[in-house]
Amino acid sequence: MADLAKIAGVSAITVSRALRDSPLVNAETRARVQEVARQHGYAFNINARNLRLRRSMTVAVVVEMKPSLERQMSGPYPLELLGGITQELTSSGYSVLLTALQGPPPPSVQAADGVILLGQGAHEDAMHAVRSWGRPLVVWGAVSRHESEVVVGSDNRRGGALVAERFLALGRSRPVFLGDPAHGEFAERLAGFADTLAGYGIQPLTPPVGGFTVSAGAEAVRALLERQPQFDALFAASDLLAIGAIRALLERGRRVPEDVSVIGYDDTPLGATYVPPLSSVHQNFLDAGVLLARKVRALIEGEAADSETLPTHLVLRAT
Amino acid sequence: MADLAKIAGVSAITVSRALRDSPLVNAETRARVQEVARQHGYAFNINARNLRLRRSMTVAVVVEMKPSLERQMSGPYPLELLGGITQELTSSGYSVLLTALQGPPPPSVQAADGVILLGQGAHEDAMHAVRSWGRPLVVWGAVSRHESEVVVGSDNRRGGALVAERFLALGRSRPVFLGDPAHGEFAERLAGFADTLAGYGIQPLTPPVGGFTVSAGAEAVRALLERQPQFDALFAASDLLAIGAIRALLERGRRVPEDVSVIGYDDTPLGATYVPPLSSVHQNFLDAGVLLARKVRALIEGEAADSETLPTHLVLRAT
DNA sequence: TTGAAAGCGCTAACAG
DNA sequence: CTGTTAGCGCTTTCAA
User: Fold this and answer.
1) What is the pLDDT of residue B25?
2) Across residues A91-111, what is the average pLDDT?
3) B 167-226 residues with CB below 8 A of A?
4) Domain B58-154+284-310 has CATH 1.50.10.10
């Protein structure tokens, strides 16, 4: 900048202002300075600015990213969430720092102005670790769980309720919920589901499920068919589980949806292109990402931000 | 640091060295300083270090991230790639800066020590834009296309050849290739496929395909069935296209695989759980991510790095 | 093994 | 509208 200043015949601070499009500098001067900068291939030093301004214009996004395909956070969700976050944040001058939460975070992550945690999942400890960084924090997950944190999540209770209503409308009376309620979002889906059914004196079966995978869903349903085969509707807490469930049902000669109605969750392309195409509860991850981004930004800039619940809706397909 | 220095009764530079585990400092002093730092909740300022050291310990990952589910870069690929990259980079002290390549990149991205471009796709212009940042660059995509760049990609030619061999072993003689060869990686898959077939005097049909989606695959096959229905094998350049193709085939009463063998590409969970489970060419995105990360790191540290091709293998399932 | 001096490149505050 | 001064927090000389 000092060099540019000499070349352009102004002071360094004027160069600084000109490059920032400050209104404090004459339009003509500004143009000249910018031209000189361009000609000389000037590269701005963001670290110097950050040091001076005491901020990094950076938001850390913490993802649980195990190398396992069928995991809960796999599939398109986190990527869409990331897409929304990145879109919103970069368009307001922030950068997105991706972190895997394994071992101590690299220093640049600790220097982030804010943090977005994707999926508190079964990892309440992850939340604690991240909170200890002492940065503005926004979490994607089950909203009701954490009053002290800003949490964005989709309306899992409503999602569950929608499925219950659908089953009731179809005249189904022996429903099953498939999913481990230790997972906060799953617990909410079950709550909405069970509460609505309770209004009609119906209590869903909740067989144990050992995971989030297609095969976990299939196993659970196979076991259930052994012990309590008399069900006519199944609500799976994820499309993956639903697909596993359908597979197990078909194996045992149960027709879908004639004998058993099945509805999944997440409305993944996987479910949509499945044969039969899976009915599912849709949540808009892209919007969710944008919202998460806006909330950290608000927090960073000292404004208030509240937890928020995004609408869900039921997408009916063949099952 | 100056404060810590006073408290610990040493100089600032000694604090600096102690916190970095420098061997220049007495073990006892180091322990004391680190303890003081911990007790007082000292937060290291990474920007100051970066300013001083003239680097950012940051790698920008540029992704094409349009808000469309069925896009090429959707699905689990980029996430797995990202997982591998993040894993490798964070474990060596670098941070991963995620960027969407829309409009001018935020300054912190330009300050990255290196850049990984995920998918040159049909966007050769994306590569030009990124190259103009003048940073060490590694690209994920079609290796043969760019001699001047370091490109990591999986062995698309071999993948295509494997499929051809499989079809030949099955005695199929009228194969189709489904995919737009304007896409560099697709072109390589076709090349490997067609070359192998040519050795047996067979030339595959290459109907036009308008996109990367399930529906594009279905459309293309419907049109093909009108004009040239006499094919007995189909190699789709992605699982998405393959699924669309199967759907169209079943619609028109063609059995898979009895009448038409179908093999996809990418070995996605979507394909694996499809009914019928899709045979597909597998590529290991996690390893690829790690490799990409190692190569930028090498480049950043002034070492040489060459383009590299990752092995692919064929996963046979029902189709 | 420790420290003093100096400066990385930028910008807020305060004149002019 | 422009400039001077000072300092953000760290680390690499160089000297003790």
Assistant:
1) 87
2) 81
3) 214
4) no
Distance A94 CA to C13 C1' (A): 26
Which residue is associated with the tokens 């600096």?
B16
Taking residues B304-311, report their average pLDDT: 92
Q: Say which of B75, B96, B270 has its CB closest to residue A98.
A: B96
Average pLDDT over residues B162-189: 93
Q: Which of B115, B270, B290 to mutate to test the interface with A (most CBs of A within 10 A)?
A: B270
Taking the mean position of all CA atoms in its chain, how far away is CA B51? Answer: 31
Instruction: Kindly report, as residue ranges, where domains of CATH 3.40.50.2300 are found in chain B.
Output: 58-154+284-310, 156-283
CB B212: neighbour CB atoms within 10 A? 23
CA distance A277 to A274: 5
Report the C-alpha gap between A111 and B261 in whole angstroms.
54
Interface subset of A 222-261, CB within 8 angstroms of B: 243, 247
Are residues A46 and B214, on separate chains, in Cβ contact within 8 Å? no
- Under 8 Å between Cβ of A246 and B275: no
Mean of the pLDDT values across residues B275-280? 90
Residue A41: pLDDT above 80? yes
Mind listing the pLDDT tens digit for each residue in B209-258? 988 778 889 999 999 999 999 999 999 998 889 999 999 999 999 998 99
Q: If pLDDT is split at 50, 70 and 90, which confidence band does A92 have? A: confident
**Between residues B71 and A66, which one has the greater pLDDT?**
A66
Residues A165-187 have pLDDT tens digits of: 999 999 999 999 999 888 888 89
Distance A24 CA to D2 C1' (A): 9
**CATH class of the domain at B156-283:** alpha beta
Integer CA distances (angstroms), A220 to A10, A73, A186, A227, in order: 74, 20, 16, 11
Contact indicator for B254, B77 with CB cutoff of 8 Å:
no
| CA–CA gap between residue A229 and residue B303 (Å, rounded) | 64
- Whole-angstrom distance, CA of residue A114 vs CA of residue A164: 38
Strand C close to B25 by CB, under 7 A: yes
